[in-house]
Amino acid sequence: MKIRAVQFSPRLGDLQANRDEHEIRIQRAREAGCDLVVFPELSLTGYQLQDIVFDVCLHHGDETFSWLEKLSRDIDILVGAPLEEPAGIIHNCALYFSAGKLRHCHRKVQLPNFGMFEERMLYAAGEEFRTFPVKEFTVGLLICREILFPVNAWLYHLQYADLVIGISNSPFRGLGREGFSSFALWENMGYVHSVFYHQNYLFVNRTGFEDGIGFGGGSFFAPAGKGIQERAPYLDEAEFDVDVDAEAVRRARLSGNYRRDERLHVIRRELERICHD
Fold this sequence. Notes:
With 277 residues, this protein is α/β, with parallel strands linked by helices. It contains seven helices and 16 strands. A six-stranded mixed β-sheet has the order 5-4-3-2-1-16. Strands 6-7-8-11-14-15 form a six-stranded mixed β-sheet. It is globular, with a radius of gyration of 18 Å.
């Protein structure tokens, strides 16, 4: 499965300009023979939406939703967008379109609400981490801060996910010789996903500035069992392609045996004890 990651800077609140940019990038990926093209978190709208979120959020069956369905007839598309469902309730979503329809919607569970982040003022929290099939792969999706909670990827690990995609709007801080210190968190988690959870893991982050906040890029791919192998630059827009191999997951599982040796009955018992202590 050939996947293209698109690291770019959406225009805040400009749905039409972002649609035009998505269409160009999707056509480019289609011409390159990609099976899937992945965009960052809230790629269709930008991040700092505040009170305009009600004007730019998607709805099932609206023009933008139908446009995405049409574009996905011959290439799979993963975009980030606010989605209103039901009326008056908006989620920060990762939307996976394939064969002309929405195949999966992941609603962001961990909504940051501190410092520069005010997502709980805008969005309702999601409630589940559910896998879905894509070709021969079992896929799980994560959105930004969810990536930093190892238990979330572990839930996908328990469901035998062999491809996990994390989309993000991560700011940058602390530039040094080794890159941004803030990005060590994302890269460390990429290593965990790959080596300990046996997942092909793709991280796609945005670039650009909004209201004085800079987003750092630094997207990467970590094949199952190998850690990070492909990287996009910090700050600059970029595209890169990766080939995802299901056999790599099998080899990683055989060499690590972490999934085989999970003792779920012990974990369940301990969770119940901790919750009631």
